Amino acid sequence: MALRVYNTMTRQKEEFVPATPGEVKMYVCGVTVYDMCHIGHARSMVLFDVIYRYLQYKHFAVTYVRNFTDVDDKIINRARERGDHWKKLAEKFIDEFYIDMDALGCLRPSHEPRATDHIPHIEELIARLIEKGYAYVADGDVMFSVDKFRGYGKLSGKRVEDLVAGARVEVDEKKRNPLDFVLWKAAKPDEPFWESPWGPGRPGWHIECSAMSMHFLGEHFDIHGGGADLTFPHHENEIAQSESVSGAPFAKYWIHNGFVNIRQEKMSKSLGNVLNIRDILQEIHPEVLRLFLLSSHYRSPLDYNETSIREAAAGLQRLYRSVAALDAVDGEATEESLPTVLVNIRGKFCEAMDDDFNTPRCLALLFDAARAMNRITAQAQSDPQNTPQKTVLEQVCSEMLDVSRHVLGILREDPRAFVEEFRKAGADGLAIDVLAIQKLIGERTAARKEKDFKRADEIRAELASYGIILEDGPDGTTWRLKENH
Questions:
Q1: In percent, how much of the chain has pLDDT > 70?
Q2: How far, in Å, CA of 141 to CA of 156, rounded?
Q3: In whole angstroms, what is the distance from residue 186 CA to residue 396 CA?
Q4: Which of 164, 216, 261, 435 is buried most deeply by CB count within 10 Å?
Q5: What number of helices (H) and strands (E) belong to the chain?
Q6: From the CA atom positions of the chain, what is the Rg in Å?
Q7: How far is it, in rounded angstroms, from Cα 216 to Cα 218?
Q8: Number of other CB atoms surrounding residue 102 within 10 Å
Q9: Can you tell me whether residue 202 is helix, strand or coil?
């Protein structure tokens, strides 16, 4: 199956065919470094980290560029509030960004340019736009003329006429059209500036991404990504200014992730419900947050709440336990006795990822495999002759760990050590010794075969006291955690 991705530009899934066979060029809009990163940033960064990982997993040579906006009104204003220098403030929050992303297991991109390091490229791009008649100088500012670009609105689906009609009335006599946007801002007192052909000033927000992406990837590249909030106006403006210069399509595939809500409310500073990554990781394991962020399809909205986080924590531990419990297996049966869900995990995983990076389907595949592994380890205590050999199950675990670690970025720790650490810590009431559980289930299975139902009931009751629910089925006994346990 070929990789298919949903393209925001065409509003449909398309087969992914990079411009150069075997190579992928990808640009993702990074953060404006004036504050700590929040969970919305985490969702975008983890998504594109998984895409980056998966493209490499499929043996593409990937050039991944993600920028830092390190000069901006927000940075300047925050620095004033704190009595700090704008450059020092930006450096501080770049350092904080790396701490958060490293904790989440995000790989470093190929290039991480900063706007202030690319002022010459930005000035060159603006000069080309002026020369071609797409931009004009107005009292030291340089504006892009939206009227000149006939395709404006094609990414977001917005019509210029509607945008003009709905535009707020602002006192800005410099603009010929209320939709025109700034490419170069004339210097104001006590603000950072660079000399330019149009006078001292600094770049506008939109132009920096066009300049840096073109510098590292060329005027046309494969993937441009970011959060859904960037579709308009940021990405729309990037397209306008980039294609006005090149005369060719800017990026071929546009990928946008959905919003994160907090307890069914939009996350916003006005509501006071912005959750910083650092604060979240004070309470939960980084892989729990990462699994939660991948539990919903990236284009769908995602709701952060206590129940969802507990489910993610329980799910992560189930995956770790299923692998850690392999030590309890010493079966004799061959590979032919494997349940279907344990056959070709890697292939099924790739099929799910090839369907527009469907991480929820990938996780469902892993959870099904974990349940099957739990049934096998439970059976191994009472009927080793009909339990697959350990070498066979080691291959299954190898595939589970391979796709989890290299693509999803979870199960990166040693499984036995992880389970033991959670058992000692009593983390969130979910710490359970999986080997002890499997041993008791094995004893119960043997007791039932011998019709010692009293002992079987005692074992069920003992496990229930720990919040473990047993479910008997045609394939044996499985277990799960009781809700809120």
A1: 89
A2: 26
A3: 61
A4: 216
A5: 16, 15
A6: 27
A7: 6
A8: 12
A9: strand
